[in-house]
Amino acid sequence: MKCIVGLGNPGLRYAKTRHNIGFMVIDELIKRHKWSLQKNKFKGHLTKERVSDEQIILLKPQTYMNRSGESIKELMDFYQLEPEDVLVIYDDLDLPTGKIRLRQTGGHGGHNGIRSIIDQLQSKQFNRLRMGIDRPKESVSVVDHVLGKFPKSDKVSVDQSIQKAADACETWFEKSFQEVMNEFN
Q1: What Rg value do the Cα atoms of the chain yield, rounded?
Q2: Is 90 annotated as contributing to ligand binding?
Q3: Residue 12 DSSP symbol
Q4: What's the pLDDT score for residue 52?
Q5: Domain region containing 42
Q6: What's the Cα-to-Cα distance from 62 to each of 19, 68, 142, rounded to whole Å?
Q7: Assembly and interactions (predicted)?
Q8: Is 19 designated active site?
Q9: CA of 114: how far to CAs of 10, 51, 52, 92, in Å?
């Protein structure tokens, strides 16, 4: 069983913001496979599907970003998942908009969603797919930047990164995470 988690904040106020790009990748996977999310399980929206011989869970925590780890920990405990069975998709200020990077471990890098996951799991060992959102301009705070929507000028690169991230997730359905990193990094 593999679990793909897209991080974001619930509600229309946050839809399509940079901080919700993890949700956008989950939405793309849902659309591609014509799946649907069930509500209110493990403090999140999820679906459990079968792809070939693999059970796949897609999760969008509804705890707000700073408490994402609560939702993930509940799901992992219920299904007895190991950290290597989980892939977390999230926004990253240190990557240019449109770029993606996969890695198997690391710190939180100041990202409160990742900090929450590390705190809940008591481990840094889980798969990550980082989605570039670039740093804010000097006159914009980090909070305003991550909670802001992408400008129209970034639409093409953002859409391409969401497609590429969804492709990477689908590749992980069939291959090891190391192979996915080799192919998409």
Answers
A1: 15
A2: no
A3: G
A4: 87
A5: 2-184
A6: 13, 8, 22
A7: Monomer.
A8: yes
A9: 17, 27, 30, 11
